[in-house]
Design goal:
Transposase Inhibitor Protein From Tn5, Chain A, domain 1, 3-stranded antiparallel β-sheet, elongated, 2 domains, 16 helices
Length: about 450
């Protein structure tokens, strides 16, 4: 017989790891401090920091909508996560309260929240690495966020062939570490170019990185949509020097410069019947550029069964001095991992931007970004477990979605977890890495 009568139970028992992860950053509290509270003090039942905790923890656990509040309002673990007594404390905020909260944020507060997100992430990893980092790499990447209603600043984008927003995500990585850590999430109208706002975001991130890692080399890696005169002028003007590797779309001049390398690749491919590529370099200046820059050429001939060989030249603008092949394969191609980070963000519903108000949707993007930062911290704590490279949905399924019964006495509160939990060893290691003690 089944009976759903465990008022002291929750299916999100492992979500206490989110609270532990946040202690490394103080992220939720610092973001909440950026929001002005214009409500009448005597009528406030839910502090802003509690509302932000409720939404961020809910997003991390797989509850992306404010409507989910009705199903979670009495959940003891989610009450515990916002700082209330899990059994006798007030219920969580309702959907109307959360909707008013989301729609109250303005651009100045959201800008400060974005700055706090970047600052806390960079500061956290500065402490983790002790400042002993040779290289910090900054990646920016745009992605489409399809819209299906009357959201403000939603426009048709011909490149993505739908109505959308065009958010831009920023990541930092350190030396040769495999993970890229989210540090910026900017929602943009659907009709902007990829370059919109990029220089401003890069300027702020470079300033923060340089302040925390004064001796580190800073490298910027971008795809072809960001290649613009203003961006190159900014990167070239930075002192100390910033390394950059920026893809560039093909044009008639670049194709002509790549002809010799393409011919060599074609000859080699004809001999091997395999896809072959040849690297070269040239100097190039577009009409809108003030000077020439180094361009890496990847001349590729692609062999496909039952099809004629296809030429696929690629171009990367850089100020680095290493060989063309090393720059392309060891530096530029590594940014492909950013696509996996974007997929993880979408798994946390970063594209759930269904509010009519544009700024409310920007707040949703920032809250999802904060949830993702906490999940990345949990993955970092899982470095010595079988989940060291697990995607966020796997971390959620194996570590957060855990049945629990909450029992409180006068002196203490105990979370009773299942003894037969198959990932108990990994959970224990993660919890201890996040500061839990055995006793």
């Amino acid at each position: 017989m089944l009976s759903f009568d465990q008022r002291q139970g929750s299916s999100d028992g492992g979500a206490v790891l989110l609270q532990a992860a946040n202690r490394s950053y103080g992220l939720i509290e610092s973001m909440a401090a950026c929001l002005p509270d214009r409500r009448q003090a005597g009528k406030v039942e839910h502090r802003l920091v509690e509302l932000l905790r409720q939404r961020i923890h809910g997003l991390a656990c797989g509850y992306p909508d404010a409507n989910d509040a009705a199903r979670l309002e009495a959940d003891p673990i989610h009450k515990l996560l916002v700082g209330r007594d899990p059994l006798s404390g007030r219920d969580l905020a309702s959907q109307p309260t959360l909707s008013r909260f989301e729609n109250a944020a303005g651009p100045q507060a959201l800008y400060r929240m974005g700055m706090e997100l970047a600052s806390r992430v960079i500061e956290r990893h500065g402490k983790r690495l002790g400042g002993h980092t040779r290289r910090v790499t900054i990646d920016l990447d745009p992605t489409d966020d399809a819209t299906h209603g009357a959201q403000q600043l939603s426009f048709f984008n011909a490149h993505y062939d739908n109505w959308c927003y065009l958010p831009m995500m920023g990541f930092v990585s350190f030396d040769d570490e495999p993970d890229q850590y989210l540090c910026a999430a900017v929602l943009r109208p659907g009709n902007v170019t990829a370059t919109a706002g990029a220089v401003g975001v890069l300027r702020r991130l470079i300033r923060m990185v340089r302040a925390r890692f004064p001796k580190a080399c800073i490298r910027v890696r971008l795809d072809g949509g960001f290649a613009s005169p203003a961006l190159f002028e900014f990167l070239d003007s930075e002192e100390p020097k910033v390394e950059y590797v920026v893809a560039m779309a093909s044009n008639a001049v670049l194709k002509r410069k790549a002809e010799e390398a393409i011919e060599i690749a074609r000859l080699i491919s004809g001999l091997t019947d395999e896809t072959e590529h040849v690297y070269d370099e040239t100097r190039y200046a577009a009409r809108s550029w003030k000077r020439e820059r180094r361009v890496i050429l990847k001349a590729e001939v692609v062999q496909q069964s039952d099809k004629a060989p296809k030429e696929n030249p690629r171009f990367v603008v850089t100020n680095m001095k290493q060989s063309p092949q090393w720059i392309y394969e060891q530096v530029y191609c590594q940014r492909g991992e950013i696509e996996n980070r974007i997929k993880e963000l979408k798994a946390l519903d970063v594209d759930r931007t269904s509010c009519t108000n544009f700024w409310a949707n920007q707040l949703r993007v920032l809250m999802t970004a904060a949830a993702y930062v906490l999940m990345q911290e949990i993955r970092l704590a899982a470095a010595l477990t079988t989940m060291a490279r697990a995607q966020v949905w796997t971390l959620r399924e194996r570590l957060l979605k855990l049945g629990v019964r909450v029992v409180a006495s006068v002196r203490r509160m105990v979370l009773h977890l299942p003894e037969s939990f198959p990932f108990l060893g990994d959970f224990r290691q993660v919890a201890q890495a996040l500061g839990a003690t055995v006793g």
